[in-house]
Request: fold
Amino acid sequence: MCKYKHLPQGWKVKKLEEIKTIEFLRGNGLPKSALNDSGKSECIHYGQLYTTYKHPVIKKVVFRTNIEGKRLSNKGDVLIPGTTTADAMGIAIARSLNVNNVVIGGDINILRTKNMDIFSDFLSYYLNGPAKVELASYANGTNILHLSNKKIKKILIPIPSLSEQKRIVVILDKTFAEITKAEAIAKTNLQNAKELFESYLNNVFENKGDDWENKRLDELTEVKDGTHDSPKYITDGIPFVTQKNIKSDGFNIENTKFITEVDHQKFYQRSNVTYGDILISMIGANRGMSAIVDIKNIFSIKNVGLIKESENINQFFLLNYLHSTFAMKYVKLMSNGGAQEFIGLKALRAFPISFPKSKDEQQQIVKKLNSLSSETKKLEIIYQKKIDNLVELKKSILQKAFNGEL
Reply:
């Protein structure tokens, strides 16, 4: 619970339910996309609260029924998601509205203030700042989290005069607008740093030399896949690696389930993965993502392609090729399935690989790519640090604002 001991004179601390000019409501609209009948109406679904810092994005959505009897917004309403599939901090989002008569979805909590005792933007900033952790702690559920007005009412808030609230909001609006610009620049620079390496990588395979040749992957090395079975899992045993362990920044063995030694031996006969092999995801949104096995732990694999290390091609050259847009286009072209798309073992084995015949040239390309990757990662760390610092700056400014220190 938030505690305030050294507030300026005239400030009061109250629970939200003690502020009589706040009305606690719940949305009851049906803002589902692409329904049929009755034309379009402006509305807000809880997912649209996540997209901006202060005011939500408002969209036109087709309703199955007309909007009579639906909860419509008042200018100044503070909206808080009542449902989320993300983490608890994701549900602790408050947005103040600057328009009237927008349909509010049924999974949204509404704090309707008359701007008499408390200014709506002041309330929104507070709930997004010092109260955010407390607000998140009130969410309950497992796969789907819920947050009710009953819990929100218990939040404590420090309240100065209405004129002081408005003064604080003016300062926060101006400051956060500048921080948002700085964040946008840092995020653009971060993206540019990532694209710099990707551009150079693709350029290597686009401008092939005369001594390059093309072969199927299975002509260069042995290509297998992991089991597609779901064995009985145990509390502790042999790690069972899936496509989730293949990340854009490499391979990790964290957050795996475990199988018995007996099951592992059965799967290992099919796919004897070892240090230096390449793993490639075969299913789901990250299919085609590949990483080299750089740990010597024992584990089994499921729904993952296995490319064995071979003397026929530099393994790190091959890994870089698999990271290129040329390789990813092949993966998408050869994918099958509906909601859970996959690339089969037959298509993996037929993967077209372009490479220079000279192993020395392969090594030189790897060396250049490693050097550029190292430099771009340094830039990525710098820009990510700037983004993280700006996030912390927001928190610090909000904390000062509600301690009466602005």
User: Anything to note?
Assistant: The radius of gyration is 28 Å.
